[in-house]
Amino acid sequence: MSEEYMFVVKDLSKGTTKRGSPFYSLMLSNETEGTVSAKVWEIREEIKRGSVYHFYGKWQTYQGNRQFVVENYDLIKDQISPQKLSDMAGVKSVSVSVFDEMIKILEEIDGTNEAHVFTKNVLMKHKDKIISAPAAKSIHHNFPGGLMLHLYEVGMISMMIGGFFSNTPIVKDSYGKIDNGLLLSGGLLHDIGKIETYTHNALPEYTDVGLLEGHIPIGYALIKEELEEQKMDEMFKSKLLHIMLSHHERQEWGSPVAPMFIEAQLVHYADQISSKVATFDSIFTDDTHDGNWTDFNRNLNRSLFKE
Ligand SMILES: [Fe+2]
Ligand SMILES: [Fe+2]
């Protein structure tokens, strides 16, 4: 018997059957069923990510996994509130206290340090956008407040790694002191360009500017303007801009230059740690696969072990 559900489309991809007909693979979600995978074999009209539909169909077991086979669907045209959409999509909520924590850390470590004052001013100026922006469309920190959480994590992880190496003979003897002010500022600001890169809602999409320019150039331009406005020292200016540009480490990963001093390299690794941990979390959260292994994740090129 056919069943009816109201679902938000969390993700979708279009494929073609062996006979050449198009079909949809969907990731659907609501408050009671959680995330479910679904197939639409007969496309009546285009399905959009982030839209809510009545779906009619049957449950089926395919290769040991539960799947909803859609027989019919109707777009819900009424306005759905952002809160309802977040609840349906199971989107994480991030407390604004994370932002306050970033400011507190800058003040408590050293409220007079010029790098800290600069970073605090930039964060405060863009607070409204930072607290509502996601850090990605999918994969990691892809929810409102996700950017703030990611910046906080990268700032903290950078400080922890930097703090550890400041006390080992390697950095002490061969490199000199790590500049903690630069390191923390780089961590907290590295992705600030993302405030303009995605829409600020439960299921983010790229903005036109985000697609045309990319978050690294947007962040670089924003920080450059702030550095000039706040008349920062030339060396700090060059080094912070270098961190903005090099935090993805490689050209093929989006960075025009590779990290060329220790603080820049550490921000890159902190960025990797924060994004990978959040990626694992989102894979486990959205997993629809039965058994010990998650669905194959194309981004990581592996399944994850659940036990
Ligand atoms: Fe980035
Ligand atoms: Fe990042």
Distance between the termini: 35 Å
| Portion in strands | 15-25%
Regarding quaternary structure, how should these chains be classified? single chain
What's the CATH architecture of the largest domain?
Orthogonal Bundle
The average pLDDT is 94
What's the number of extended β-strand segments?
Answer: 5
**Estimated radius of gyration:** 22 Å
Category from helices, strands and their pairing = alpha+beta
Low-confidence stretches: none
Q: Tally the helices: what do you get?
A: 11
Please sum up the structure shown.
By secondary structure, the chain is of the alpha+beta class. The protein folds into two domains: 3-85, OB fold (Dihydrolipoamide Acetyltransferase, E2P), CATH 2.40.50.140; 92-286, Orthogonal Bundle (Hypothetical protein af1432). It has eleven helices and five strands.
Descriptive account of the structure:
- This protein is an alpha+beta fold and 307 residues long.
- It folds into 2 domains: 3-85, Nucleic acid-binding proteins (OB fold (Dihydrolipoamide Acetyltransferase, E2P)), CATH 2.40.50.140; 92-286, Orthogonal Bundle (Hypothetical protein af1432), CATH 1.10.3210.
- Helices cover 45% and strands 17% of the residues.
- The chain has helices at residues 82-89, 97-110, 114-125, 127-132, 146-166, 169-175, 180-189, 208-213, 215-229, 234-246, 262-286; strands at 3-16, 22-30, 34-40, 52-62, 65-75.
- Strand 4 and strand 5 (65-75) form a beta hairpin.
- It binds fe (ii) ion (2 copies).
- One fe (ii) ion is lined by residues 150, 154, 190-191, 271, 275.
